[in-house]
What does this fold into?
Amino acid sequence: MITGRVFNVQRFSLHDGPGIRTTVFFKGCPLHCTWCHNPEGLASAPEVLVVESRCIDCGACVDACPSGVAAVAGWGADGRTLCTACATCVEACPAEARQIAGRDVTVPELLAEIVRDRVFFEGGGGVTFSGGEPLLQLRFLEGMLEACRSAGLHTAVDTSGLAPLKHLLRIAPLTDLLLYDVKLVDEVRHRSHTGVSNATILSNLEALTRVHDAIWLRIPVVPGVNDDDANMQATAALAARLSSIRRVSLLPYHRLGADKLRRLKSTERLNRTEPPTRARMDELAAGFAAVGVTTTIGG
It folds into this structure.
């Protein structure tokens, strides 16, 4: 039976496609964006998160940990290297200060979770598969899309586009909506801020527009990274040129990822950037609208 690894099933989501949605976050991502909002989704393996504000210093995690990791002062990089994410400390913690990010589920198990929310999907909602990068788990993603289609659920896939084109073409007919992330148009800057080239991402987008007629571009707006006029104008021109782009969603950077990094006991990628102002977001949205692209802030 096909299984996949997810780290969150978020109910009543309003920002991952049309209507009220259930968003499933897949583990693993081929990018390492400096502003990542979901750092617990980067690694494919399960990870332990520590919510320090809940810790009551009872020592249950130290007593339970078979590797002695929980006793490492401040945990830190050494602890993360030694930790096997066996979840023994998670089960032992009476205050739920320790959590596990990443669990394995089968297609029927996950579908059963999703269909509980069917009543909330009325009026145009549905399920969105996000991450991480869902295309890293292609067979599981295909299985979920097929199962959701059989159940009559509207589906969306949120992808970075960094995947073999043949994989994107396999899931395109199975999903009602593609949410396609475009971070930066310039290749050098993209590599600097994400760790990878955008050549495949942009070429895959061009190819997808020829086979799918419902694509939303999603652009994280990160001050000092990609919010300059030159990049935004180039991105707007790209969206205007591709007729299958039905909408652009400008997503203002927020600092929730920083808190998650602390829970992972990692500060190596901590981004201290301030969120963009509403005035700047309105200005950028007006620039996209000026070239005829339907644009929203958020969503």
User: Anything to note?
Assistant: The first helix runs from residue 60 to 64. The radius of gyration is 20 Å.
